[in-house]
């Protein structure tokens, strides 16, 4: 990404992000669970402040993203899309940076896949997860805005000099 302009946008275009997720063809799957009725339900959750999207824009073009449900300090990842190689990984990295900055220690990926495992995700025992869930969901919500300073904490280094 050194030779490209990267912008992370949160809640920029939720409807378009969920539609892109619904239109993503995944190996070994026919169709999608993100049918029109589900999209409308998530749009209502978004309008109520519970569903959010993270988008990766490269050189002015939206190239990838994801959407998630947020209750308190708990994030439930729902789906991702990528129109350019690794763009969904960039969006997920931005979500991780955002969550770390706001003291949100868990992103529930809901599925155990090789792709998520390659990014560092690992399954939790149900008991451990449910013990954390109650306390995290009772925390106050955080403002869903992205600041580039979140990257610096994630990668543990200061911004490059201008």
Tag the structure with descriptive keywords:
162 residues; alpha+beta; Aminopeptidase; 5-stranded mixed β-sheet
Order of helices and strands: EHHEEEHEHHH
Q: Per CATH, which architecture?
A: 3-Layer(aba) Sandwich
- Assigned CATH class: Alpha Beta
Strand order of the largest sheet: 1-2-3-4-5
Total domain modules:
1
Structural class: alpha+beta
Distance between the termini: 16 Å
What gyration radius follows from the Cα positions, in whole Å?
Answer: 16 Å
Overall spatial form: globular
What is the residue-averaged pLDDT?
87
Reported for the largest beta sheet, the result is: 5 strands, mixed
Within CATH, the superfamily carries the name Leucyl/phenylalanyl-tRNA-protein transferase, C-terminal domain
- What name does CATH use for the topology? Aminopeptidase
What would you note in describing this structure?
There is one protein chain. By secondary structure, this protein is α+β, with helices and mostly antiparallel strands. The protein has one domain (6-155): Leucyl/phenylalanyl-tRNA-protein transferase, C-terminal domain (Aminopeptidase, 3-Layer(aba) Sandwich), CATH 3.40.630. The chain has helices at residues 14-22, 36-47, 87-101, 114-118, 126-137, 149-155; strands at residues 6-10, 51-58, 61-71, 74-82, 107-108. Strands 1-2-3-4-5 form a five-stranded mixed β-sheet, sandwiched between helices.
């Amino acid at each position: 990404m050194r030779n490209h302009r990267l912008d992370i946008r949160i809640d920029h275009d939720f409807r378009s992000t969920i539609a892109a997720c619904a239109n993503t063809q995944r190996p070994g799957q026919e169709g999608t669970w993100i049918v029109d009725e589900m999209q409308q339900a998530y749009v209502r959750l978004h309008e109520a402040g519970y569903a959010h999207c993270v988008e990766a824009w490269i050189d002015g073009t939206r190239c990838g993203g994801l959407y998630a449900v947020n209750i308190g300090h708990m994030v439930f990842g729902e789906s991702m899309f990528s129109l350019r190689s690794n763009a969904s990984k960039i969006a997920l990295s931005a979500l991780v940076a955002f969550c770390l900055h706001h003291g949100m220690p868990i992103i529930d990926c809901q599925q155990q896949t090789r792709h998520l495992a390659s990014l560092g995700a690992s399954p939790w025992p149900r008991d451990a997860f449910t013990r954390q869930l109650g306390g995290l969901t009772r925390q106050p919500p955080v403002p869903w805005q992205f600041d580039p300073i979140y990257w610096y904490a994630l990668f543990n280094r200061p911004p490059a000099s201008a």
